[in-house]
Design brief:
The protein is an alpha+beta fold. It is built from 39 helices and 35 strands. Strands 1-3-4-31-30-29 form a six-stranded mixed β-sheet, with no helix packed on it. Strands 2-28-27-26-25 form a five-stranded mixed β-sheet, with no helix packed on it. Keywords: mRNA transport, Nucleus, Protein transport, Translocation, Transport.
Amino acid sequence: MDRSFQSLRDKSLQGPSAWPSTAKRNTFVMRNRTPTGGSSRMSVSGRSSQSVQVITRTRNHDVKSFGMPLPVLVTEALTYADRSTAVSAHISPDGWAWLVCGRRLLIWQYKQTPAMAQQRRPPSTQCRELTLPASELAHRADLVWVYTREDSPVPSCIAVSPEGTVRFWPSIAHEGTSVENSTDLQGQECDSLTSIASLGCILATTTSTVVHLQPEVSNGRHCVTSTTMKPPQSLLGGIGRRMSSLIFGSLPTAGAAEAKLVRVASVENSRGSSEQEFIVYVLTEHTLQKWSVTPFDLERLIFECDVGRRVREAFQEKVWDSQGGNPDDQESWVLDMQPTKDGVAILAASVHPQVSQNMQFAIATLNTDLAIPPTRLKSFSPLKNDVVSLKPEQDISQYQLLIAGHSALVYSQRNILVFPFPVPNGLEDPDVIEFRNEGDKILGGSVCANVPVFFSKSHGLVSISPLDYSPHDLSSQNDSVNYGPDVSISECGDMSVLEQDLEELVTHQNLDARMKAAFLFHVSKNQDQCEALVKELFPRAEVPLSDVDAPLDIAAVKVSQDLIDDIPARDPRWVDMKTSSISLSSSTSLHILRQLEQKQHALDLFFQFLIDLKLWERFSAVVSLGVVMATTHVLAEQAEKLVAAIAFHQLQSEHATLTETAIRLALELERERPTGKLNAKDLFFRKVSGIQRALQVLVKWSEDQIHSECSPSEVARQLAEVNDIVLEVIVQVIQYRQQKAEIFQPNPRMETTLCEYLPWTASVGAGGLREPLLKQQSLTLKFGARSTGDPKLKAKLYDQVFKMIDIILNGKLCHLESVRGSNKETVLFEQYQKARSSLIAPLVEDREYERAVMLAEKYFDFQTLVQICDLTNNRERLDVYIEKFKDQDFSQFLFNWYIQEQKPGRLLETFRAGSGLSAAAENSAQQAALARFLGDHPSLSWLQHVFLKDFQRAADTLTNLAEQETELLRRKKSMLSLAKLALLASGGAERHDQRALLDAELDLVAHQEDLPESVLIAYGYDIDALNVLPPAELIQLLICSENQSANEFTFKKALDLLEYEENQKADLKHKIWCQAILRDDWVEADSDIPLNVVQKTVFYKLVALIEFMDFTGQSLKELVPPKERLLDAPELAKLADHKSFEFLMSVAYEYFKEVLSK
């Protein structure tokens, strides 16, 4: 996170909020009752969400959400994946999961690992994305493995393409750091990767070839070695295979057709020697192999046995013989395998079309403990199945097996069958869980800590867990009691209090019913009995307030909801709705508004009862709307919904048609219909807890109107009316929330990280209003404010858009504040920033600057504030913000914004000291802040130094920039020239060293500029954007053979450049002289007049040039190498073989000696 945003992030959490709250997540429980006898069959429908703890319940099992919520990247990938894109998932038992979508690999942590638990480190909330190798076939999650090394908390990853390309990431945090190699599989398609912990992975192909992959570090570099695991060919090596042939019959030989792979499984061998050993089972359609894998690449085949034929015979004996099935007509398959305590369990299937259309499943077990192949199946147990039938072209291989505790789970993409394990002798009905949602399917399954976990495309990670009570308990529970015809009532204010049968209510089995009795005692001033009953129900225990869904909290929330959803006691039209002889009513009036007010008064009495009996101070947290919330906040929501219901009822006179439409649509949504003399309003306002339905259906109605035949102006008016209703209701709720904030404050003694606070007005799903508000805001903007030509209506619609954005952001901010210090804070803050920007930006686009500014100031959207000031050229307002938000480092944000928007000149102009363009330009503190900022941006800081007439610092900065410049030659030349000018302007006569350095660097630039374009083009340089060349490279280009125009002056330049080179000076000097000699033909030259021949060579001319330019004679002696070194030079080896070359060189050196002697 950028530094300029860090302070903003911390401070923005101090913005407006209804309630500060503590935070921790949990889930909401949905219970579905099923018959107590026969097969239990439950569908996982779309009405559940990932945040729901119990998604559905069968006769014996719960389907619950599992682990951390899915990352946003994963949900987006699942949502937006094309139908043609292959999507698969894998769940690792050690806490990591990954999703493969095309070539995208998404990895995240769904639960805390044991090592993290010991170190008290929370699970990571970050999702990593990697790119899989290119492949013409679809990637699968089974060809990926993520594991954590002991020396690193960040896991590594191995991925294999179906063609066999292996890509290894030592750390998933660094996508660009990976190694890749290919396995020689001779065209076989890869099927799966199976972990063997620190020993690597087992790669298996669809045709049962198995390869041991081992990540290693060799010579300081990561690599992956691969070893094909082959059965031994020696005389003794095949004893296991021959023994199996004697028992089960002949096995497929090496020359037989390749066997189709079914499953590879591995278990660590904890017996025997101390050396680490893994047992790897390879199941094909015919055979089972048992391998031993130990360190140092030792793979050994222990035995191989036939299972396919034995399974087929077992099906015929145990299933089809008794039904008269002909053995020749049955088909059988080996589908899957899972390790067990003493061997393996194999899932098999068989069909006999002449007997039954249902698929017959069975689980066969083999004892594989010994080093010799098993002589028979240990057990063979057919499974009862009334769900899966035989269909043409059905992919039978999709059915897989999991063994978890005492359960065996057979699953496909659409359903899960749960059987007891070991399977009893009698055929027992399975629990059946079906995933029927459109687009939903199971993408993967695994066993984590002995709990079966599945990846549902719609629900994310879900677990299947057995119920901890009898299925009969659910059907016998009576969670609510109602009036009977023989009840007498006496009122205490607006509260209806039972006098008859109160004793029966006291002795009721439900805790919430008995809490109601205590409440009635309190209302009737019978304090002794009230206190006695409360003490019995909720004995005080001096323990930290950390329980979620404690009995006290659950009972209080249940009684509160019963109060607001209660049936009017004195309205005879509700007699048919009363199902029990005992009840408590919170309203007695026959008028709806009065009923709501009485419920409100009754709820106040209930809250006072909780406070007086000191139960309020003992509240902890409950699960609501998918998160763990403080119980007081949940009780507040019950009161808020009463406020919403009263506000909605009061709007009926002004918006009669729309409110009636909302009531009708809400009841249709719940499939409720008036009966008897009850009307739609009676039903709707009775169930106050569902008041949000009215606002949700109004938004849906608005959307329908947009797609109707109504004119744009009519649609705009309808949107405005809907907004009037929605906003009035929510504003009333928020005002009540703010007024009562202190009352509903969570207990300060509660653990600070326990709860979150997500108001129902900001929640998603059926119980919340976030999605309807976002939708309505978008519709109002696009089809209302932007479509109407009526100025008054346009202004009203923009005001409504402004209010809706305010409500949405306030809800998000409340949630964000409640998770401060938790793992979710960073993710939620990023979501909040994204939502804030996307909601306010349209107002800026529409030039609704004042409304955008009010929102941006309230929610610390500095991006919008700066953007509007820049668009309107309002520097005065910018000065106000710099001062107003100085604690949030607004100035640092502003500096960064100018840089990101590529407006550095505007930054320096605005803040230039003495410019008078802004108050910040005259503020010493802001000047110091700018100086600190520019310290990290030296390419701009020299300009500020020039503005401040600090030419010496400008020269120093430009000199440093020029030394670091390697990208563009012309930029370096400009920096050097400007540095020299700044140095001269500074009057620093004593800075001779710096001036000499600048002159030398400019000389070096000049040498590079003199390079012929033909040479640069020949070597592939971009002459229009030439980069800075080092001296050694410059020398090479000057003397290269491609520089056909090179002469003695060119080689003299090359020798001069040796001053800039330290490391290769001797070698380069030697190379320069060799290249100078090679410029001429020494072999075919006429040696009759040798001195004339020598004087025409570049070599001689170069020596003469050096002698001419040297008045001391020292340079010639230092620069010209000895004759013997040149004659022995490898570069001149071809010339050295010719006597004429040696003769001419001797003539040259003799002449040089004579010249030097003079």
